[in-house]
Amino acid sequence: MSQPRLPTYYLSHGGGPWPWIMDQMPGFENLERSLKNIPSQLPIRPKAVLVMSGHWEENDFTVMSNPRPKMLYDFGGFPEFTYKIQYPAPGHPELAAEVQKLIRGAGINANSDPERGFDHGTYSTLYPMYPKADVPVVQLSVRSDYDPEIHIRVGRALAPLREQGVLIIGSGSSYHNLRLPKDRIEQSRSFDRWLQDKILSMTGKERNADLIGWEQAPAARSAHPQEDHLMPLMFAVGAAENEAASLIYHEMLINFFFVSSFKLGQEKGGNFTADER
Question: Which of these, 156, 141, 136, 118, lies nearest to 52 by C-alpha position?
Answer without folding.
Answer: 141
